[in-house]
Design brief:
Layout lengths: L2 E8 L4 E7 L4 H7 L17 E6 L2 E2 L11 H5 L2 E3 L4 E2 L3 E5 L11 E13 L3 E7 L12 E6 L4 E6 L8 E7 L5 H8 L5 E8 L11 E6 L4 H12 L6 E7 L8 H10 L3 E7 L18 H4 L5 E6 L1 H13 L6 E6 L7 E2 L1
Parallel strand pairs: 1-7, 14-15, 14-17, 15-16, 17-18
Antiparallel strand pairs: 1-2, 3-5, 3-7, 4-6, 8-9, 8-13, 9-12, 10-11, 10-13, 18-19
Helix pairs in contact: 4-5
Amino acid sequence: MSSYNIALNFEDGVTRFIECKAGEKVLDAAFRAKINLPMDCADGVCGTCKCRAESGRYDLGDDYIEDALSEDEKRNGLVLACQMVPESDCVIAVPASSSGCKTEQSRFTTTVAKVEPHNDAAVVLELDAGESAPVFLPGQYVNIDVPGSGQNRSYSFSSAPGQSTISFLIKKISGGVMSTWLESAQPGDKLDLIGPFGSFYLREPQRPLLFLAGGTGLAPFLSMLEVLARGDSQRKVHMVYGVTRDLDLVKVDAIEAYTARLPHFSYATVVADAVSSHPRKGWVTQHIPADALNGGDVDVYLCGPPPMVDAVRKHFDDNGVRPSSFHYEKFTPNASARAV
């Protein structure tokens, strides 16, 4: 391979992707892309360019001093951008804002390919991005400009990266700006996207995974599952998908399809409505199997409305559950997503 894709995740939530040539250092590749990563010496002496490598393979060489990067820091995934030579695609957390590094989020123009309603609960929006398809990490989101409104709305990708057609699972809101526009949207209509954003994305799996989805918070997990399936993942994955009403259960057929593609994937759906005939009623927290927590040796990903996210966090705290890693994203209608 002659080059690698490097995702630079800035502390303000902006992600920029750069191309790093074989044998090229990350700092040099960033400067070539007109991104000014923090730097003083560029010689492995000062430590100013220290970042965290969250995934990928790389070589740091030995041309730096321990005052700039200690062995303990190296074992914990810290790197010097001026010395890091990627040997695969990588994700790097940069401890600086995108504006401080003099870079901006990317803009993309797409066309509507399909608008598919799911009961009165949600709409699947498919967009044709062609050669300008955004590069993103599974779980991230973009801001979509709503034509004629002067407003934008934030939605997580439900499709996997690397496709010319991208998709979103959008909650239907009576009188909502995007919901109203989608009622008359036609194939070929133009939509502008800004992004990607967000620190809620699938890290390289190191242990069993527990996915907790609420409502249209299912979207990022569809992207994650597709990436895992394409990578022939052998990790154990369990998902609990909770909704308010029976009609809110959407894309269950798509979830079911992953049981054939991922050998260790299982899932359960839960409906909160007490009058539902669904076999599992109540809240997501009531239907998390003990073995899915693996004694705490588990990576938990949680996406849903704020009350659900807060309830899961309280449930973990009250029961002494301390996952090895815990990533969550809250979303509310008409507001941008935020992740931890």
